[in-house]
User: Fold these one by one.
Assistant:
Number 1:
Amino acid sequence: MINGEQLVPAPIRWAMVGGGRGSQIGYIHRSAALRDQVFQLVAGAFDIDPVRGRDFGVNLGVAPQRCYPDYATMFAQEAQRPDGIQAVSVATPNGTHYAICKAALEAGLHVVCEKPLCFTTAEAEELQALARRQHKVVGVTYGYAGHQLIEQAREMIAHGELGDIRIVQMQFAHGFHSAAVEADNPATRWRVDPKFAGPSYVLGDVGTHPLYLSEVMLPELKIRRLMCSRQSFVKSRAPLEDNAFTIMEYDSGAVGYVWSSAVNAGSMHGQKIRVIGSKASIEWWDERPNQMTFEVQGEPVRILERGMGYLHPAARHDDRIGGGHPEGLFEAWSNLYYRYAQAMVASDRGDNAALQALRYPGIEAGVEGVRWVENCVRSADAGAVWVDYV
Ligand SMILES: NC(=O)c1ccc[n+]([C@@H]2O[C@H](COP(=O)([O-])OP(=O)(O)OC[C@H]3O[C@@H](n4cnc5c(N)ncnc54)[C@H](O)[C@@H]3O)[C@@H](O)[C@H]2O)c1
């Protein structure tokens, strides 16, 4: 159970790039990192606008001289301080991730980066090699992966409770961008511009989330080939898609499917994963994250509740409040940041055993997400054809 006891010797001196005033994702990074006192926010280059970024940082309680106009200045000046930053989180638009992560790793910092990690598999693998050379942790924020019921699903599958896995059905299909909302909203505008968003919109923005959940639940599953069809229902978004269907075949003979969409009109979030085995199925939906459906063929449906004693120990490990009270996205993120902190300490100590024992979306998850998007785009742009997964 997590109860606020610190699992690191001292809070890690931490900074942010991006996540400034009005950003969508900045607050949850801070809330997650600071909740269990495993990180301490001491510096930042919070905004593309240096004046606004400084003002914002000061309001967060960061010393004015440590609110920097840009990340390069921050990395250089913090390196001169005996109490300089040890880790940085990157919460900027996609097109900046590669350069900022590279500079951070070169500056000897641990990194937590937003998804998608970068634009190409080649870039992602370069960052992976750099992180290895520098002995640094890179976390990638597939946030719901920190939810207890994801661990429960993994354990149930590993213990054979579903039988042989046949089908993985995934979706992240919301309706918030059913119309051209980007006309009035800068935070949406960059998402549909290839210069800032990369080679895809919804595949990278939302599809990679349930894909990573499947990687946690089914670590042995390897994609053999896939076929993707993508559409721009709001025409001005072309060549980027606002809807995509991807069918996958795995080495094991199982098959999978991901629906990625921002035009599922009326849907709030629509992130779901259903794993179907020869004996039973489980289903988890992020809008009802405290319940997971367990359906055994021929038996009444069971609803497994988060926080209950009948869950596997790995699922109870990160419990904060027990059953009944809900835990959701914020707790899942906090659990991830808790693990990132422990990973950073283990890495600094050279304690590989401790590092390997921690499960969190790291650089491998970042590389895999980028690889999947690249394969999907290759298939879609060749006319929705089957392509071998490379
Ligand atoms: N993990 C998740 O669930 C999740 C959810 C939403 C967004 N995201 C990801 O988070 C990232 C940011 O998304 P957002 O919705 O918060 O974007 P946003 O447009 O709302 O905010 C971006 C922030 O970054 C700042 N910024 C931009 N360029 C900068 C630079 N070079 N240096 C410093 N600051 C800079 C902006 O001023 C702003 O404060 C994206 O990569 C997005 O895909 C992830």
Number 2:
Amino acid sequence: MDFELFILGSSSATPSKGRYQSAQLLKIHTDFFMIDCGEAAQYQIGRYKLNHAKISHIFISHLHGDHFFGLVGLLSTMNLYGRKNPIYLYAPPGLDEIIQLQLKYSETILQFPIHYTTLDKNESEHILDHPLVDVYTIPLDHRIRCNGFLFKEKPKPFKIDKSKLPPDLSLLEIAQLKQGIDVVDDDGNSKARVEDICFKALKTRSYAYCSDTKINESYFPFIEGVDLLYHETTFLDELIDRANKTFHTTAKQAAELAKRANVGKLVIGHFSSRYYDTEPFIIEAGSIFEKTYLGVEGSSFVISDRIKDEENH
Ligand SMILES: [Zn+2]
């Protein structure tokens, strides 16, 4: 089953030097989960031949324009293409009002419903219980209310190798094996063991999105051990004072955090438009945390569900 991240935008604040504002798509199986929706998001979706009709849920981290100004345009396009399926939208307070106002004065009536979930808590919330994935907010430390998001794949049932199945097992006992529980008889003797009968378990994958924020210990537990971490790196460490003042992070800081949190891979982005070249970011972060990648436009990151590391970039 697919678990793949597509980067649509890597710029902070303004489009610049071929980079666009924050937007990502996380593909889980056949569903697309959109994370932030900068101004060029729908253009980028077309450019990389992704399909906006498959977007089911949209998560907006905060209401700085570079993270949501593409939203009403995308919703309008979906409408023009005849969308009927609902959109589930998760965002800080105010976005519902902003969208309704834009639609009202453009006399646009969407032919599909939008279900809003307002994110107004200071603590992490479990905001989505989807058949394939659980989503939690990660409260961040920015100038205005800002949430990151943690996507945790649900454990998958064990697959049974039918050729190894003892003939005397009941349906209930088989169901028990699929849950990963060994079967024993009334006297406690083993009847069937998961490791003898089932194929190897598949990994449950996780992705944490952290933008925009200053480094803060409070969100460390949410990113610890994730397979893939996206963390903003607006500045290089030479501008750490500016990063602190504007509640942003440097490449060095993000890499130190990723290393300490023992994540599988670090993807960096939200680069300030002052930088023409993003290569110094990978040099700075990569020297501290080797598995760092530039989250530039058009890049994608696959997370494998095999227990052994067969991931490819
Ligand atoms: Zn911001």
Number 3:
Amino acid sequence: MIDTILPIPDLFAATRVLCIQPHYDDNDIAAAGTIARLTALGCEVTYVTVTNDLMGVVDGFANDDEARAALKRDQFAAASHIGVTQQHWLDYPDAGAYDYFAVRRDVLMHIRRIKPDFVMTCDPWLTYEGHRDHIQTGLAVSEAVMFAGLTRIASSDPAVDAAYQSHQIAGIAFYFTREPNAIVDITSTWPQKVAALRSYHAQFDDAGLDDLVTAFDHKSRQVAQGQTFARGEPLKVLHTSALHCGI
Ligand SMILES: [Zn+2]
């Protein structure tokens, strides 16, 4: 495989990172250890969640409003363990029918409003990814990162577009990837990741949380094999110009 000729940007030089996820828990399941390291360095991390995640909740809620409240309660609890302070929700129907370009417009709006110097999302080109929400989110975010400076491509808020002054996005970091080019050392933040994952009671019963932590206990050590540290999270980190035509 011939890799990009562009330099791999340094995620840990970022001061403002926007993490855009399909569901409430994806950022944390994939990258809580990395995100905890970023916030410890003083980086401001903002989450945007694309879907309402209502299909993923375990039974026991009388109605959708209760489920929404529980999902947000869990997400804020998880965030408190890893230093994330800003949350936004796009509320598209989980595993449902929604317009790709509407998602891209909303993501563009948040990028132009927040002006992150790094964006993180799931890898839409993960082989054998069966969940359309993950593919749509990763692709919409990739396009929005490429098109952020092209204000003739409208976001969902004309006022944000009118006020936007072009800024540099140093890179994009994909998690849930099969082609990582960076393994982040999360040995020191592993306890924070476990605490964050164990916050998600609306989506997992106790046995499910145990299985989740066990799976990522093994995975974090598997991806660190051959490294100088014990636990890692795999990322594909790219210069934003590497998102088009294989440069
Ligand atoms: Zn997900």
